[in-house]
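Could you help me review a protein record that somebody else here produced? Do not assume that whoever made the record got everything right. The record follows directly below this note.
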Amino acid sequence: MSEEWCKSLHAAALNCNQYSVLQLLEEIPENHQIFKHQLEDFAENYQFDKSSIKFIT
């Protein structure tokens, strides 16, 4: 994922903006679906602190 995408996801998570987080996660490619599903689970349960934005970058 691009640096811009990572920054956008980080900002959305810091702002607890579930809608934006989920919209950004839709951009994750098919070959990373396990990672995408884990992040979706965190977002859907408002566990933004566990979404480990550092792992993405």
Summary: The longest helix spans residues 3-14. The mean pLDDT is 82. The radius of gyration is 10 Å.
